[in-house]
Amino acid sequence: MSNNNKPSALEPYKIDVPQEALDDLKDRLKKTRFFDDLDNEEEYYGISTAYLKPLVEYWADGFDWRAQEKRLNTYDQYRVEIDGTPVHFYYVRGKGPNPVPLAIHSGWPWSSGFSLPLIGPLTDPAAHGGDPADSFDVIIPDLPGFAWSTPVGRGDLNYWKIADIIHKLMTEVLGYEKYAAAGSDYGALVTSALGHKYADSIIGLHYGHDMPPGQFANERFWDLTDGAKIPEDATPELRAGLENLISTYVSHVAVHMLDASTLTHGLNDSPIGMLAWLLRRWKKWSDKRGDFDENFPRDFILTEATAFWVNQAIGSSIRMYRNAVRYPWVPSHNRRPVVEPPAGFTFLLGDAYPPGVNTVEERIAAFENGPTRSSFNVINVNAHMKGGHFVHYENPQAFTNDVRETFRKLR
């Protein structure tokens, strides 16, 4: 698990966006041509002009990027090049007797910024009411092609190719013989690919979503439902849950899979277009029982949007979907389970998936009896009422406690 003090050779990195990029963004925002958007007060058709317009006006005149940049630069961060692409990552050493090195992977459309609330409690448990024996060295990369891990020097990146890059980051750049990994959404796929191919180097895994490698390998790769219709005998509650699941997750997968670059031309040139596309995911995927505006303050939203904008990361991040099809994952071995290292899970009930689940017990049972359970070496499963799809950000306390619990069994 030790590392050879290699990090001392790393050059610290600070986020520092050129002023001309911010001026150009402000200029574009002030020239926005807003859409009439008739009869969309309830956002039946998607993000409404009524919701977007004040946000865009604040982004153009009021939002203080430099203050947010200062916040993002609070923690030690670095940037290296691995396999022809830059990798930006936060790296904070643990305060405790034997910190476990832990790489934490976000999904789409998140940056490392969604995972920053995990740093303090995981690196310094004693300062957050915990036991110093539960400390971690925390490494939070922006996945290549996302946010500050840009511009990529190659167009073929996907989750299993990113896993190779992360493994080199942890073993060759940071010098760890063994390490742990955690992830949610697309980052869960990266975590699973690591757990499959590099099991000998992995202490353990922790997930916010149960996603084994091989996702998007089905014939209808653009269709999250795989052509399934809602059963005719579905209860009204299940029908509503399935309809909500479809309206929440299906549209972006189909477009990203079938028209990634076509969409990107618009989003890469129009900050309001890009914001609308991102914001629809953040609003729809977050806790369905929560207050979005309270849980996702506008400064946080616009910080994330600015990170995508100034780095022109929207296109390279979207391409990850189709690249999972164009360059399909191939198993390295046929051992079972397909992801061998011990794994823990944190499920939040405010997510739209799985439909028809309303209690902690039902959520755990849905996993234990579900199609992905046999892919993992499960040692710890927890579910929590608070939070939706953005596990690390929406309920960092639950995720932190569950990660500690998982690795207590493995230290």
Automatic annotation (TrEMBL):
Among Pfam families, the record links this protein to: Abhydrolase_1, EHN
Keyword Hydrolase listed: yes
Q: Which residues participate directly in catalysis?
A: 185 (nucleophile), 321 (proton donor), 389 (proton acceptor)
Query: Tell me, which GO biological process terms does this entry list?
Result: epoxide metabolic process
Residue ranges annotated for the AB hydrolase-1 domain, each copy included? 126-202
Which controlled-vocabulary keywords does the entry list?
Aromatic hydrocarbons catabolism, Hydrolase
Give start and end of each Epoxide hydrolase N-terminal domain.
Answer: 11-111
Alphabetized InterPro entries for the sequence: AB_hydrolase_1 (IPR000073), AB_hydrolase_fold (IPR029058), Epox_hydrolase-like (IPR000639), Epoxide_hydro_N (IPR010497), Epoxide_hydrolase (IPR016292)
Asked whether the UniProt record includes Ligase among its keywords, one would answer: no
Q: Name one GO molecular function term.
A: epoxide hydrolase activity
Q: Which family does it belong to?
A: Belongs to the peptidase S33 family.
Q: What is this protein called?
A: Pimeloyl-ACP methyl ester carboxylesterase
Task: Name the source organism.
Answer: Nonomuraea polychroma
